[in-house]
């Protein structure tokens, strides 16, 4: 398959690359085999071949799909409601009840998860890290929903042997460990007969967070992660009431609990981390642990913003998360904008205080990197995702800015000519306009591993 047109990507933090009239060739395995200007000799040779061709029309461009590093799949059931309580109360009043309901109703689970997969694709998300529920069967339904729509997904069965809701926990640490390994094996079995390039769903160990996991359970999960080379996800230093609970119950901060149990690794993604001071951020960098930055839910449940600039400066891998339903929007474009907004507020406070040092704000290009290549690196998915380079999987979304008649699509309006010498030219300014104002109306197609997965054929 050949794709000819304009391509946009961010290979490095703060970098934006626009490739005009470019040609990308994708083989049957969904891997990019050619990426050069359409006017090069090798590109002209390919264009003369019988390879199927997709022409990206003027006023449109291809950009990598987004990565969502933190989403509670069962909480999609009540997305957009119940955001008025502190975290620990909110879990009891909303989260645990919804998750228990999903576990007890396979029909409801399938309805919720199939719709979730569709909404993710509509929003341009091609890769997602999912918190599930306790029940293995419900998590297999979740994994199948993601696999059937071609999404890249890490699916996590919750491990929790402690709970403020007595009906929503596992019987013991040993039961929880047995259940976790059972899910890992059965989730992997879903993809075992598929070609390697189509094995897009994987299990991930998921201790919910320290307040719901005994030391015995965390120790066992750390051993599983090490022995089976499994990925891990959890919540770390998210909210004031949660941080204080851990200090009172365990006598140390939760980052120390994770570290001593072998759960801070280069295969770990920790959500939030808003209460981590600089020394703890250095600890994440040392272990290679990634952070899922969820600015919207942090505004609701954290009394502190995440130290994003400081984390990036010391080499912590960071991606963005929606944190449904602690955040109400499933759209990573919103998360990008919110990340910039929060960082600019932090920079304003720095200036008012008269603090010296580097500016704390990030710009839209840096946020775009976090949503694409940076997020893919933080997830640890296939090398090259988030770029249009040779040997990389072709994960892309088609964005349209202007109709054939020259009218802006969706919320976009254009009052000046975007043509040069009679030809429409994609500029950095136009990409920024889409970044600020674009939505699902601008999205016309999604490809993952070279397969068109949205809209459904």
UniProtKB/TrEMBL annotation:
MF terms (GO), sorted A to Z: guanine deaminase activity; zinc ion binding
Span of domain Amidohydrolase-related: 61-401
Coiled coil spans: none
Keywords, sorted A to Z: Hydrolase, Metal-binding, Zinc
SUPFAM superfamilies named among the record's database cross-references: Metallo-dependent hydrolases
One term under GO cellular component: cytosol
Pfam families according to UniProt: Amidohydro_1
Keyword ATP-binding: no
GO BP: guanine metabolic process
Domain of life according to the entry: Eukaryota
Keyword Metal-binding annotated: yes
InterPro entries cross-referenced by the UniProt entry: Amidohydro-rel (IPR006680), Metal-dep_hydrolase_composite (IPR011059), Metal_Hydrolase (IPR032466), Metallo-dep_hydrolases (IPR051607)
Cofactor list: Zn(2+)
Alphabetized PANTHER family for the sequence: GUANINE DEAMINASE (PTHR11271)
Record-given protein name: Amidohydrolase-related domain-containing protein
